[in-house]
Design a protein that fits this description.
The chain is of the alpha/beta class. The chain has 4 helices and 4 strands, in the order βαβαβαβα. Strands 1-4-2-3 form a 4-stranded parallel beta sheet, with helices on one face.
Length: 151
């Protein structure tokens, strides 16, 4: 029996030596998105809030993103999810990156809702491995460091 549609994206563009990170209010923050990242986050809000002809995409009823912690300070996943959450009037369910994904996968499956997951790119393949995947040939074995446009 097929489960819910679960769409994974990595956070949008991060700061680098030429592009500073900024908060939603425009304050400097090295743990937030770059201006280009905020632009992508806005474009993702349009993508995920409109019916699209791209197969496999749907309007999420749930958004999950990694949360900053003492050991993982990035706010980029939450920042990337923010415009979509605001546009769809959905809360962002923030969670830490777990050691194993079984509990989080079970929670997503049990909710049985289209879900957008905004995650740290290094651990997306491990997270996806817990699901039955319809497009397995399209999923990178390692998420490319320089790609911010994969769903």
């Amino acid at each position: 029996m097929p489960g819910p549609t679960v769409m994974f994206i990595r956070h949008a563009e991060k700061p680098d030596k030429d592009h500073k990170g900024v908060t939603p209010d425009g304050e400097h923050d090295e743990h937030s998105l770059s201006v280009r990242g905020w632009t992508r986050a806005g474009a993702l809000a349009a993508l995920f809030s409109e019916h699209t002809s791209r197969s496999g995409l749907t309007i999420p009823a749930r958004i999950i993103a990694t949360a900053p912690s003492h050991s993982y300070k990035s706010k980029r996943e939450h920042d990337t999810a923010l415009p979509t959450a605001q546009r769809l009037d959905l809360p962002i369910e923030s969670t830490s990156i777990p050691d194993g994904y079984a509990e989080l996968v079970a929670d997503i499956r049990a909710a049985d809702q289209p879900t957008l997951v905004v995650w740290h790119h290094g651990s997306i393949p491990d997270f996806i491995a817990g699901f039955d995947v319809s497009n397995v040939d399209e999923i990178p074995r390692t998420w490319p460091e320089d790609r911010f446009d994969l769903v």
